[in-house]
């Protein structure tokens, strides 16, 4: 059927303002926001980009151009041409013959790869085409979302490609794809670890920066988005099936009670600054989509993009059209794609507004945050902020609204420095252990507001954190100038790889200390994917442009890796078995009003309480944290932290006659299971140097049961491990 614009009809306002392509029974309805354009043309193609024709939209209502085109069917593709003035000083980038990607595209027929000559000379060949999607008929097979609460979230950060690209147990065609993540081998590994949330690094369509392309590199991480709703086709076995494959991945993870959250980049786009390419937003309404400096008279200086992101531009969520796009993208991912939440890259930028028409400042009362609160589907989701950007007043840790969690870099730095032996951090470490209430105010913020981590995608991997004192980023071709200079790491005597058994043993124990600190602390724990396999980037702490096996997870089934995987699994299951570890409720810290409340005591090795001066005493390098339910039948725990180089014998708190202390975690052991120290239930416990020991009060009659459970953890290569501690 030939393409034909339907004759003028009285379309409803709801339909005309539904941006993007909407397939109807009698054609496809298109609506494009371009208030200053003089004309809008839609160019149509087959999926393989054979031209089908062009249609000029002839109706406009306010800033919306619209029309219904007969003859368009599902899987046909299109691009937009916006004509008008090309006048950057006025914020106008219209140009006849230049094709643009629809900001509301929900699928692309191919990835976008920057090619300067094509960009300048052959726009039709350069720009990928938006795909017209048919009606959603995906079979969710009755699988529902896990409906996970924040207090049960244990996050595993993964890159879709990097996680499975080198896994030889997965069919080659599925490695590095959405379906690779959905493969039973991958899911079995996640269940063995005990994590409950997979956080995917950006999966929205993105483009590598031109300067990287010139160097023969690419943006592997994907933090340079072109579209907010279209999946990156690179992670699908077929671009035609990307949406179905992504939904399949979500369904299978949900089937196994694992939630999925997306790392979203709503702070900037791949169009860069003034000299950057015109790909989508710039060519339709640059004045509203981006933030600009202000002149003395308060007007915008369209020749000076505000760059609070360090990426050339800042997406201006203070404008109606930008906020609308972000909000529709979030609704799309939550409802149609069934994801469970978001981690917002450089979230401060998303919360910036022109407070007095001049200053582009962060406010926790921004319209974006109000929208998240008012939209029930969003408010119930996991919302995690990276609480900074690179602009003025860009560090906002602890200042996001209630209901949000925030990446706590103070936890990261304090814990790293503490375990590498920096003095004077006993009190700081204790503060981080208890939810960083110096940053997240009691009563107004949940104790799970702090997202606790020691490694993230940006920075050293866990293996490199204990193997390098300095960054080694030469492969990025920036003369080692990129990446953070301060690594808060320690190599234990040799920079990088070594065969020294003593150094290797120290490194393994330090990794266990760091992971244990994350998983026993109050707050939401985060683990970087690949750390369980001792993944190394050989000292590169900014591997964003390394799309190769330097960044991929190596699935090496060594004894050391199996021990570390078992150790993480032990910690995750210990955490999930405990109300105290998941969501501590104290009398003076009752964000949640519940019937239960707990008692906290800090003790020295002789059993006496820590005094104020003890926290600053350089001779004291350890403490015992006691947390117990005020009900004598409830939970009681001891967490003994020993930063020192000597063994310490700790006197334990007394317990009722029918109870005993059972050691269940010891980081001095290769798999974390207590073996060298007695579990006889007495009131003393030896603690190894530079280690953490966790004890739980149990009923004496359950001693054999718990011991058998701990023995079971020692077994390797299990795929269906589901042991839970007796409560």
Automatic annotation (TrEMBL):
<dbReference type="Pfam" id="PF02922">
    <property type="entry name" value="CBM_48"/>
</dbReference>
<comment type="similarity">
    <text>Belongs to the glycosyl hydrolase 13 family.</text>
</comment>
<protein>
    <submittedName>
        <fullName>Glycogen debranching enzyme GlgX</fullName>
        <ecNumber>3.2.1.-</ecNumber>
    </submittedName>
</protein>
<dbReference type="InterPro" id="IPR044505">
    <property type="entry name" value="GlgX_Isoamylase_N_E_set"/>
</dbReference>
<dbReference type="InterPro" id="IPR011837">
    <property type="entry name" value="Glycogen_debranch_GlgX"/>
</dbReference>
<dbReference type="Pfam" id="PF00128">
    <property type="entry name" value="Alpha-amylase"/>
</dbReference>
<dbReference type="GO" id="GO:0005980">
    <property type="term" value="P:glycogen catabolic process"/>
</dbReference>
<keyword id="KW-0378">Hydrolase</keyword>
<dbReference type="InterPro" id="IPR017853">
    <property type="entry name" value="GH"/>
</dbReference>
<dbReference type="InterPro" id="IPR013780">
    <property type="entry name" value="Glyco_hydro_b"/>
</dbReference>
<dbReference type="GO" id="GO:0004135">
    <property type="term" value="F:amylo-alpha-1,6-glucosidase activity"/>
</dbReference>
<keyword id="KW-0326">Glycosidase</keyword>
<dbReference type="InterPro" id="IPR006047">
    <property type="entry name" value="GH13_cat_dom"/>
</dbReference>
<dbReference type="InterPro" id="IPR013783">
    <property type="entry name" value="Ig-like_fold"/>
</dbReference>
<feature type="domain" description="Glycosyl hydrolase family 13 catalytic">
    <location>
        <begin position="157"/>
        <end position="575"/>
    </location>
</feature>
<dbReference type="InterPro" id="IPR014756">
    <property type="entry name" value="Ig_E-set"/>
</dbReference>
<dbReference type="InterPro" id="IPR004193">
    <property type="entry name" value="Glyco_hydro_13_N"/>
</dbReference>
